[in-house]
Amino acid sequence: MIKLLLISAFVFSFIKAQDTNTTYTIGIVKVNNTTAKTKPNKSSKYDKIKLSKGQIVRIDKCNKIWCKLKGVDIYMLKSSLAIDEFADDPLANKKPNKPEKPVCIKLQKINIDDDSFKKSEIFDSLKGSCITPKLLQQIIKSITIGYMQDGFATTKPYLKPQDINDGNVDIGVIKGKVENIVHKETNDTSAKIFMAFVGQKDKQLDIRELETSLEMINRPTNTQAKFELKPGKQKGGTVVVINSNLSRWWHATLGVSGTNTKDKDTSLNGSLTIDNPLYINDIFKATINGSKIQKEYQGTKGYELDYSFAFGSYLISLIYSKNSYRQGVVGLNDTYLSKGDTVGKKLKVSKLLYRNQTNKLDISSSIYAKDTNNYFLNEKVEVSSYKTTLLHISLAHTWFRGFGTITNSITYHKGTNWFGARDDNYNSKEIDHDTIPKLQFQKWTFNSGLAYYFQDRSYRINSNFFIQYTDDYLYNNDQLTVGSWYSVRGYNDSNLYGNNGWYINNDIMKTFKLGSFPSVLQTISPYIGVDYGKTRCQWDNKDSCAEAYGGSIGFYTKGKYLNSSFKVARPFKKINKDDKQTNQFLYNITAIF
Q1: Three-class HEC string of 324-343
Q2: Is the CB of residue 301 less than 8 Å from the CB of residue 289?
Q3: E strand or H helix at 447, and its extent?
């Protein structure tokens, strides 16, 4: 009963107005969880009610200890209230048949005790409105929503005690902070938690940063983690509790692929992944590939070692690779062996710059050093054996929408002479030095991808657009190739290449869910695709610059232990007069362990 009477006496905020008729006394609550009694004595029972700072009650009279509320038999401690005299409602003493317009104090400005709050535009539509309890409640709600949109879910605004005759409303802010980050079972901060949430303790709680850190913990496929927020011991403090489940620490694949193009050798590939080898949200992965049988005069093979770990919102990757080839060159009386290998070392660092519910912005940078050596009849070919070092800087944006996702990335590529790489001065004595391909080149690439789902989510469109631009002449490895299974399909034996060019490929796909044999066949996704590409004609690619049209049909299958794909592609236009428009076939079968 006391709660109902007391609630009826509260006002969410107060308005100080001037009038010559009467005045009344109000009390502004100074502390939370203040108390109320039905009688002002020590023996009567308290009825505890949670009140926020700034809430207002109307007072009838006070003595040294207690204040009686207006219109109800409830008493509150005088020490819990800030008491002041205010003018009464000008309509209170007027007769009903002579109504007067109520006093309106127009909102001029909202002052927030937080310089980092940048959503002042939400108040533009409120400026000039009459300050009422409803308006003040709307202001508090709008600020709260603004903080939540920025990820500050535990930051709370409140109305400060104030005089609003000047039209200014003062808002205080209690910033929610991360008091601690612990594991649910151990109640301690492990190395995995520290590496993922580094720097967040004692900072303002940002739900977006917590989600990013959780993604880093969940990078290894053997980890499934989530977090919950619990009140801390400090004012505004929150304890982030991590609960994680672990599965098998290793994963492996073994695959086979083949095609009916010139290189008809069946290729084998395999991988081994180890999750959390150092228990810091790290991943080690080894991959190997090569021909089914390494022929004496033909074949390729290679391997790659990749180790990556997270440090807060940074992801650091270290990659080592080696690829080699053997190829027979048919001479007049014999077949001569040409062979070579390329050793690559890469350091890549990426960072999440910004994220909210619909956007994600990443930046990454990498340094890739390659050492290429080619041999003919076991003699090193100095012209084509050299070191290169490439710098890449990329900015990527992902837009999440109800229909799917749109990803865009722009990358700057620069060849350097770092770490002993060959300098372009190597060819400075050549007559046509300005038209010789450069190792210290600069180029830009832009990639845009669309994954569009129909209302029936089993249908989707995948579209990818890629363009490359440079003012320099490039070596083959750095030129753009248009005509492969990854660009314009159907042109594997005869493709276009150039320093500048672009292509677009598009697939429409339907996924069927199958439940008969989930171990090997959970879904099957047939598709049909159409591609187009073009390279710009320059002096170094006059015979390989043109337009290319191609198409492909096929299907993908997915199972718990087996994935596969079967594709057929065909060119729609000849690049050279001697080309035959034949079907290209590719299959991949991968077992998962």
Answers
A1: EEEEEEECCCCEEEEEEEEE
A2: yes
A3: strand 442-453
Determine how many CB atoms are found less than 10 A away from the CB of residue 69: 21
pLDDT of the residue at 332: 67
Q: What residue ranges define each of the domains in the chain, with the CATH number in brackets?
A: 2-87 (2.30.30), 109-174 (3.10.20.310), 177-246 (3.10.20.310)
Contact 503, 488 (CB under 8 A): yes
Looking at residue 87, what is its pLDDT? 47
Helices in 221-351 by DSSP H: which ranges?
none
d(CA 509, CA 554): 10
400 bridge partner residues: 405
pTM summary value: 0.76
pLDDT of residue 41: 66
Q: What does the alpha-carbon distance between residue 236 and residue 59 come to, in Å, rounded to a whole number?
A: 31
Query: Closest Cα partner for 340 from 383, 296, 384, 309?
Result: 384
Query: Which range has the worst mean pLDDT, 150-159, 267-276, 489-498?
Result: 489-498
| Residue range 209-235, pLDDT digits in tens | 999 999 999 999 999 999 999 999 988
- The model's confidence at residue 100, banded by pLDDT at 50, 70 and 90, is low
For 398-420, what is the mean pLDDT?
96
Q: What's the pLDDT at 6?
A: 42
3-state secondary structure 502-555: EEEEEEEEECEEEEEECCCEEEEEEEEEEEEEEECCCHHHCCCCCEEEEEEEEE
